[in-house]
Write a structure and sequence with these properties.
The protein is an all-alpha fold. The chain has helices at about 5-10, 15-30, 35-45, 50-65, 70-80, 85-95, 100-115, 120-130, 135-150, 150-165, 170-180, 185-200, 205-215, 220-235, 235-250, 255-265, 270-285, 285-300, 305-315, 320-335, 340-350, 355-370, 375-385, 390-400, 405-420, 425-435, 440-450, 455-470, 475-485, 490-505, 505-520, 525-535, 540-555, 555-570, 575-585.
């Protein structure tokens, strides 16, 4: 059996398991040897076996309730076991036995901190400062208590006092920086965090804090460097999450994906990491991979609405509208959803040309949220499409009242006014839309309205501006063709219309190109277009008349007469056709 000197040597050499075995052998022989039970408790604390240590020290204080040291270690055991009320009682007993024991005051203050008893933290720490005025931990605890109560000015005073007692303590300096950051004084916070970093360049928290300020300031490349350094010093989920966020903002989605993969493997229960990975793939426009991940998330947790909505959005992006509709059907069936989800479902229904469903859902959205301005606007668009002009006007007026400066609403209201031929009032709202965002689409529709007002020069200026920023858009090219046709600049009109047709074949564009060829005297080209259109719509009287005029110009009287007679079979009173027959007969 080992002697007490040998056991103390083992403890001094951190050989706690060996010391523990030797102590247990002695206790087995001497069950009431409480000094050895005390040593056994210390070994168990050093071995992180706090339950066993608690039993050891509880035995000791039963035998000797005046043993302040055992009460202190018992308080440590309770603290580690998160039994804070018992820890509080133990430390109070220590201070009852040893009122000036600074370590006891510090431990009791920390227990009060964990329980949110900040007034008592202040009491303990102030007593501790009186006992050991050169010890930094007490003003640091006071500062921490003030910070927890959002009394940041007071907190900074005591943190600075702690710093004066422990000059290069990066923990204290970091706390000062956190006060400034919470107060919104970002520049001052950065200055202090950099001081903490200078004090200890290998402080992971200081690196993270500096990165966090740069992230708040939108300087994400700088932030990434500090987050990377913090994580290289001490691997942390918090550091990785912040790093990945700034990588996305740079953007550097590939690097962010690697971090999210690592986080998803370490924390498979946290689907937000997989979801964030989806956002990275979406940023790369790798919709296929993003969709596969989302399909897995949604399958495992069908009631998690946000990933399901994102999956539907990606289906829409890839043109799989029916799949998107199926997702929304399931969301609405299985969840109590808000007005925003119903609104998205209505928009999808519109894209699927199911305007009846869209109308019904938009009415539901408005019932749930009468102030949903965009829902009123979209319902107005549907009524306009159904030529229910009075109803459309009511919805547009409501939308404008609710959101008088919303670009989409102003623009659609202007389109409604154009549709009902109120061009002057439409011009007022197109001008307002232009003042908010003069993008190419707004310019194009404003130009169309100027054309209707016969303000051809303004229309020309606007459409040329639109072409400058979006010259490869088929509709803008078509409108340019219309405007230059009205200006009788048929060569320009021809060029724009041909470019529009190269991008997308449209009957309206083809018809206008046919009219342009006619004005240029290219009658055969014009007639070929009209004949092509007639193959798909043989009873279109305007096309028949235009074709007849082309044949007349080509001196093909029989064909001209034949087309005119077909027209009269449909519309017997057509004066233009009758006049043509008189001319060529």
């Amino acid at each position: 059996m080992k002697t007490i000197e040998e056991i103390n040597d083992l403890i001094a050499g951190n050989k706690f398991e060996e010391a523990k075995t030797a102590i247990i052998n002695i206790i087995n022989a001497e069950p009431n040897n409480f000094e050895y039970k005390k040593l056994l408790g210390l070994c168990n604390i050093n071995l992180n076996k706090y339950l066993e240590a608690r039993v050891n020290f509880e035995d000791v204080i039963k035998y000797n309730p005046e043993d302040a040291t055992s009460w202190f270690y018992l308080g440590n055991c309770y603290n580690e076991l998160e039994d804070y009320p018992s820890a509080e009682s133990a430390y109070k007993k220590v201070l009852e036995l040893r009122p000036d024991y600074a370590e006891g005051l510090k431990s009791l203050a920390l227990i009060y901190m964990k329980q949110g008893k900040f007034d008592r933290v202040l009491e303990c720490a102030q007593r501790g400062s009186e006992i050991e005025p050169e010890e930094y931990i007490f003003p640091y605890l006071i500062g921490t208590a003030y910070m927890a109560q959002k009394e940041f000015d007071n907190a900074i005073v005591f943190f600075n006092k702690a710093r004066s007692l422990s000059c290069n303590n990066s923990q204290v300096i970091n706390s000062i920086g956190t006060c400034y950051l919470t107060m919104g004084r970002n520049d001052k916070a950065l200055e202090v965090y950099l001081e903490a970093l200078n004090a200890n360049p290998q402080d992971a928290l200081a690196n993270y804090n500096v990165g966090s300020v740069y992230q708040i300031l939108g300087q994400h490349e700088k932030a990434c460097g500090y987050f990377e350094k913090a994580n290289s010093i001490e691997e942390s989920e918090t550091f990785l999450v912040a790093w990945a966020l700034s990588l996305m903002k740079i953007p550097s989605p590939d690097e962010a994906i690697e971090i999210y993969k690592k986080l998803a493997v370490a924390h498979p229960e946290k689907t937000n990491y997989q979801y964030n990975m989806v956002l990275c793939y979406e940023a790369k426009r790798d919709f296929g991979t993003a969709i596969k991940i989302l399909e897995s998330i949604v399958m495992l947790n069908p009631q998690f609405v946000m990933p399901a909505q994102k999956l539907a959005a990606l289906y829409i992006e890839t043109g799989e509208l029916r799949k998107a509709k199926d997702i929304y059907d399931k969301i609405i069936l299985k969840n109590k959803v808000n007005a925003e989800v119903f609104y998205q479902y209505a928009i999808l229904s519109t894209q699927l040309c199911d305007t009846d469903t869209a109308e019904k859902i938009l009415k539901k959205v408005i019932k749930m949220n009468p102030n949903a301005a965009k829902a009123h606007k979209d319902l107005g668009v549907i009524y306009l499409g159904k030529r229910l002009f009075d109803w459309a006007e009511d919805e547009f007026n409501t939308a404008i009242k609710l959101a008088p400066n919303d670009l989409d609403i102003i623009f659609e209201y202007a389109n409604y006014l154009y549709a009902i031929a109120d061009y002057k009032k439409a011009d007022e709202f197109y001008t307002k839309a232009m003042s908010i965002d003069s993008n190419s689409i707004v310019k194009t529709f404003t130009a169309l309205n100027k054309l209707a007002l016969n303000d051809l020069e303004s229309a020309k200026t606007l459409i040329l501006d639109a072409l400058h920023t979006a010259g490869e858009h088929e509709y803008i090219l078509f409108v340019a063709g219309r405007i230059f046709f009205a200006l009788k600049d048929y060569d320009c009109a021809k060029n724009y219309l041909i470019k529009a047709l190269e991008l997308k074949v449209s009957d309206d564009t083809m018809n206008l190109l046919g009219l342009t060829y006619f004005e240029l005297g290219e009658y055969e080209s014009a007639n070929n277009i009209f004949l092509n259109l007639l193959n798909r719509n043989p009873k279109n009287t305007i096309l028949l008349l235009n074709s007849a005029k082309c044949y007349e110009k080509l001196n093909s009287q029989d064909d001209a007469l034949a087309q005119a007679e077909k027209l009269l079979d449909i519309f017997p009173d057509c004066e233009d056709a009758l006049e043509l027959i008189r001319r060529v007969s």
